Amino acid sequence: MRDFETHFPYKRVLVLGLAKSGFAAASTLLAHGRSVRVSDLNASNQDELVTILEQKGAEVKLGAQEIDLLDGMDVLIKNPGIRYENLIVQTAMERNIPVLTEVELAGLLHKGTLVGITGSNGKTTTTTLAYEMLKESQVRTYVAGNIGTAASEVADKTTEDDRLVLELSSFQLQGIDQFRPHIAVMLNIFEAHLDYHHSLENYEQAKANIFRNQDAGDYLVYNAEDERLQHIVKDAKATLVPFSGSRQLANGAWYDETHVYFKDEAVAAIEDILLVGGHQLENILAAVAAAKLAGATNDGIQHVLKTFSGVEHRLQYIKHLNGRAFYNDSKATNILATSKALSSFEQPTILLAGGLDRGNTFETLVPFMEHVKALVVFGETAEKLRETAYLAGIELIEYVNDVKEAAEAAYRLSESGDVILLSPACASWDQYRTFEERGNMFVEAVHTLE
Length: 450
Prior knowledge:
Blueprint: H1 4-7, E1 12-16, H2 20-31, E2 35-40, H3 48-56, E3 59-62, E4 75-78, H4 87-94, E5 99-100, H5 102-109, E6 113-118, H6 123-136, E7 141-145, H7 151-155, E8 163-167, H8 170-174, E9 183-186, H9 194-197, H10 200-208, E10 219-223, H11 227-232, E11 239-244, E12 253-255, E13 259-262, E14 265-269, H12 280-293, H13 298-307, E15 316-321, E16 324-328, H14 335-342, E17 349-353, E18 372-377, H15 382-391, E19 397-399, H16 403-413, E20 419-422, H17 435-448
Helix pairs in contact: 6-12, 6-13, 16-17
């Protein structure tokens, strides 16, 4: 635990971007006696959040963002989605004004045990599992960050006995200074968000920030089978806690044909695990390690693994209809996520994919398309995915306008015994505001089928 007043010496703060994290940061800082200026390009004076912040004493500036926003400011807290090429951000850095993200505040405000979880894939599932395992163990635990609630909003309410489990994106981690989780988790590193970070090295460095401030009294849980992570964690000062699905580990989490283990202790039976997909065992191992280090009991862990069927939009089972099983994996915004989803099924599969074109191709999906009998494509990458289907020997391909039409087309092309899987392998922003919006449209469409 750190004293916020000592470690956050800035008195005048510019909050750039009035989204969920911006509102939480501004509100929290106002409550701690800071002078806060908020700027947002798209909000209006009629927005409830604007009214609330003004009533609390914030100076709110809407519309075009001019350099004079920085006048008199000691620090800039930016929305994670705002790029560092932004003129205000660039100018702040040139003026040696620190540029942070809202999770920095959470790290300074939280009074108990902080668990931070990051990775290219599996963050939400692992975060949810660890949170539920601690909660079922009667440990008072909160969950926040990239998963839903803004981190600082929750952290400011915690006590020394509480646990706070945070899902952390590379966007959030790039903007930290003193942030230090007692337990950090790195699931995997896969080439992602290069349009934001510009290079794999920059992306890796942002992810590695999760353990940058740790020492030997802290823990770093990591995937011992991920070659990139093995290289990255060599710089860590924390106590390393590996997990592996391939070998027994005396100092970490692993599994065999019968049980999940933490070190030499059998924690849960494999046959009791409800989650679909072999790749989910990696997420389970990471969650078990983090939860055990944070005080979870085996009974609490076992209860969660027996009852947890997945998070919304992450290989989420929807329903069976006339012998077809429908799954919503809208959160699969990159190739690795979709490859893991495809690896979860041995049944004939109709894959629904497409979305924002970030310049990559999809050839690396081909080895995972053995059971794909048909492909329904949409969005900017539809043509690239069609070319990938040809490489995989898939001849049944259909173009549609959106995921509603995709659900209808997939059902028409399917037979009893098939899996119908929305796993786009792309971000949603060419057609939808969020992957949640995309997934919800798909789920609604499935429930209208007869």
